[in-house]
């Protein structure tokens, strides 16, 4: 029975992270921590790293902390931590590698989902300022971007 609960917590955490990505992006990255996120919209340096990567580090620390709490008897820490980790990996693959091509992989993907995700992200990035720009997660992209 524990394995079923573990899997449900893991999946629930993964899906909840989609909400957290939207919330963090809309109200924190485009809000009071715009100074960290700005270089993601308009690169003003020559480094491969962005100040925006601090958000990735924050969620990695949360995930690792939950792993630690798992070792202290709080077994829920493992599926919570792995759910955040899995979402972080998926987000990195879709956002940083597939969309922004920080590594030159998945360049030739051309199905309806990949075109929709690219189109939606391009519409968000056409706004270079703090305001405007529709915010959404990685999985639940508005259907209006999935055209033939």
From TrEMBL:
- What is the organism of origin for this protein? Maribacter orientalis
Which PANTHER family is this protein grouped with?
A: BETA-CAROTENE 3-HYDROXYLASE 1, CHLOROPLASTIC
Annotated protein name in UniProt: Beta-carotene 3-hydroxylase
Give the taxonomic lineage as stored in the record.
Bacteria, Pseudomonadati, Bacteroidota, Flavobacteriia, Flavobacteriales
Single Gene Ontology MF annotation: beta-carotene 3-hydroxylase activity
GO biological process terms held by the UniProt record: carotene metabolic process; xanthophyll biosynthetic process
Keyword Membrane in annotation: yes
Entry keywords, A to Z: Carotenoid biosynthesis, Membrane, Oxidoreductase, Transmembrane, Transmembrane helix
Any stretches that span the bilayer, and where are they?
A: 6-33, 54-70, 76-94
Q: Which InterPro entries match?
A: BETA-OHASE-like
Q: Which family does it belong to?
A: Belongs to the sterol desaturase family.
């Amino acid at each position: 029975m524990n394995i079923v609960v573990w899997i449900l917590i893991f999946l629930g955490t993964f899906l909840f992270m989609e909400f957290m990505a939207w919330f963090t992006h809309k109200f924190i990255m485009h809000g009071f921590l715009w100074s960290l996120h700005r270089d993601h919209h308009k690169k003003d340096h020559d480094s491969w790293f962005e100040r925006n990567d601090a958000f990735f580090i924050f969620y990695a620390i949360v995930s690792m902390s939950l792993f630690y709490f798992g070792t202290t008897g709080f077994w829920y820490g493992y599926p919570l931590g792995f759910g955040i980790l899995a979402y972080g990996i998926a987000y990195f693959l879709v956002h940083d590698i597939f969309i922004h091509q920080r590594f030159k992989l998945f360049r030739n993907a051309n199905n309806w989902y990949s075109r929709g995700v690219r189109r939606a992200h391009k519409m968000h990035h056409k706004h270079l300022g703090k305001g405007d720009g529709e915010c959404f997660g990685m999985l639940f992209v508005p259907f209006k971007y999935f055209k033939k």
